[in-house]
From TrEMBL:
Keywords for this protein: ATP-binding, Nucleotide-binding
Gene3D superfamilies hit by this protein: 1.10.8.60, P-loop containing nucleotide triphosphate hydrolases
One Pfam family recorded for the sequence: Sigma54_activat
Name assigned to this protein: Sigma 54-interacting transcriptional regulator
Organism, scientific name: Aeoliella straminimaris
Amino acid sequence: MSDSIPREHRAFLQSLADLAYCNPFSPQRLVLEQQALGRDATSVTEEVWSRTQETDHTERPSVLAINDQAENLVEHLCEKFAKRRTLDARTRELYDDLVTYVLYYRHLAHRTIEQLFAPPRGSAGQIAWRKFASDYERLFGSPAFDDYDTDTAAHLYACLCQVRRAFKHIFDCILGESAPAGRLREAVWQSIFTHDMRRYRRSLYRSLRELPTLISGPSGTGKELVARAIACSQYLDFDPDRERFIDDPAVAFTPINLSALSPTLIESELFGHRRGSFTGADADRIGWFEVCRPHGAVFLDEIGELDMGIQVKLLRVMQQRTYTRLGDSEERVFAGKIIAATNRDLAAEIDAGRFRHDLYYRLCADRIETPSLSQQLVERPQALEGLVHFIAERVAPGESQAVAAETLDWIAGNLPRSYSWPGNIRELEQCVRNILVRREYIPRTEAATQRTGWLTAAEAGELTAEELLSAYTTWVHSQLGTYEATATKLGLDRRTVKSKIDAKWLKSLRE
């Protein structure tokens, strides 16, 4: 290594270089912090970096110590290199990483997203850019960095603002102190930047949005929160002449719940249509793929609900990045990102002939699994307390401490420690709301078990053919509501349907 960097600073700079480009939600981040401070990495006691009541609005002590050391060193090296005309490649790289780290924490780490993206003319965003650009020019003012210009500064500013947005969305919205929650945050960060952030900064920042993301997991586990975090953290160019970003991340997320749309309307909703293309099409209509901003994302929730015909057209969008409106021949380009979610086993849907294998493999370019609440609590039971506190903050601001304590007392006194929370985070939110209003919560444990218990028994081979037919007939009837509809669905006559229905179980299913 070059003698341009004093020997006593080399180890710190190497650790800082790794730290600047590592996934902040990975276990490696905590180890690198200790190494940068010259401590034994085995002294790390935290398992995951998560938002807690203690860390909500304060920086961690290790980060503050690293920042102080980096601030002092960058000014020292800036003065040392001021008149150097050349530096070896390794020295340039280490110094670049040091400046990148310092600029982020000095100008961006503590600003809100709203401040960074406020309109110019004296706004906080304009001030942040000008201070950033001024420091960038000074710290890279050595003749050895004569290839660093305003455009280079603007790109770095855009990348670091993206880092700020991604961290804020993930840290604030994807909660939980358990290892499964930590792995989820780590996976979401990778979905945005990949595992190699240097490569992302060099070349992938524009093209990565062409890769779709598939989020799978049980209902109520926060799949839409994950999708929103990814959509609102896409790269946005910064225009240094106008001193503003080319778009607003607040409008980057376009969610569509496919299960709430009629199958006959899904194609029109997604792709749009021309006037007269079908009965009732009285005017041209823009579809959601056209509404989506070039730097945004369309979120297709419950993608397992799509029929095969729409799947073919969606596959074309993913492969060719083009689509046409219904009744139109003009090809239109889709420039955004596609994020899909499902609580179904798509591999099983493929085997059943209900989902295209080529669409599935296209979606699986980037896959994220959201853990159930039960998985989180099995690994770390005390994580329930933190989740209840954060839910209480949203439900009852100003009274969150009292509401959280009341909820936790009720849970401890009324639910078994092994309660599985079948509704996941959504059920826990409902529990907090119920206790806020009525000081009690009535879980639907028995009903939930009854709804799925017959499937479990069938898979285990514990039902006779007669019991299986009775269970399935009762289940279908609970969904359709009439003997006639059930008979048509099952290919049975009305009398047979009526004889097979378990009246007691049907009543519980409808409660």
